[in-house]
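Pinned message: reference record for Lysine 2,3-aminomutase
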Amino acid sequence: MCSALHPAPNVSTGSLGTSPRFRAFTPRDLDGLLQRVPLSPEERLALRAVAAVLPFRTNGYVVDELIDWTAVPDDPIFRLTFPQAEMLPESDLKQMTDLLRHEAPKAEVLRAAHEIRMRLNPHPSGQLDANVPVHEGRRLTGLQHKYPETVLVFPRQGQTCHAYCTYCFRWPQFVGESDLRIATDDIAATSAYLRAHPEVTSTLITGGDPMVMSTEVLRRYVEPLLEIDTVRSIRIGTKSLAFWPYRFLTDRDADDLLRLLEKVVASGRNLALMAHFTHPQELRPPAVRAAMRRVRDTGAVIRCQGPLVRGINDSAGAWAELWNETTALGAVPYYQFVERDTGPQGYFGVPLARCHQIFRDAYAQVSGLARTVRGPVMSAMPGKVCVDGTAEVAGEKVFVLHLIQARDPDLVGRPFFAAHDERATWFSDLKPAFGASRFLPGLDPG
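Predicted structure (tokens):
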């Protein structure tokens, strides 16, 4: 039993005490939270306008333990969790601030917000067409099957998070528009699809954040997977270790959760928590370190990933510290992603050339144990495109790239070249080098 074998340590986290209760803050709390910051009424109005379009949610742990309020507005966790005016195009920001200033009817505000969202590419890379599987003539809209061996499952009850990241490419899940949400509670259909597709050896339970669900609900999605012999690995995507580590320590069903993780490991499957860490500041509280120890004690592996985001972690020092610290805590650095082409990418995106420079400079500062990390990686329409660097080939400066994962497995691992472009921030910005019409046979420009 986890309560006996893996006792929750007596972790003190300052004002939150040893057994804090989760307290969420939403847009209605934003003005009050911003009183901590010397902003003018007009500046606060602009942040409220952004929060009317893009999701805002944080919690007491993030506010009291992760943010250094003496460093705001430059504090990375503040920028990670609180809206910034520049996240919206200037004309859209003006429209929304005018509506809020004049106390426009709620329906008018919602209509304007919807129109702006539709211009922000809410579902990139074929999420609503190319990735949705079909079983017995029915589209399974809460699943994604992009790569032959992997299926993503979006539990309906897990389509929120303990706190929202401002850069999040899954922002459409959280804005209250059902047509934009990917979710399912049809566990029977999920199991039937997996049984019909034995090539699927790995499932990723994602969201939102599955760890917002109670253990009882999470179990409904996990245990049926243990009855499917062809599913050999189970992953759970979560930011909870960073934003609410008490999920694994002192929440009412924390011990039950660890027992569930132990059950998966005991079944002979690989279990990985795909932990989203964006900045080393998230690793400093004792609570997160204690939570990581408890998870690892179950036999689960913690793999760490996150995007490179302008104004938050766009320095080699931040990434080197993050990878060194996660490795010291027994976790495995996995991916450094490129900010995706959706939502506020125009504000948070970093040019690919600079992404690679940051990755290389950070990679040079870590030991071989941390060099499990891969990046910078774009999760684009054809697959996970890794920027390997720049080179001069036949007198032309080019990006050297390859696909780590692909819809078409024949494309995996084959190097290809794109014309160098200092301004490019995404795969669709790139053009084949040497005047070619495509990167590789079967791999066209984005």
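Pinned by admin. Summary line: The CA atoms of residues 2 and 258 lie 6 Å apart.
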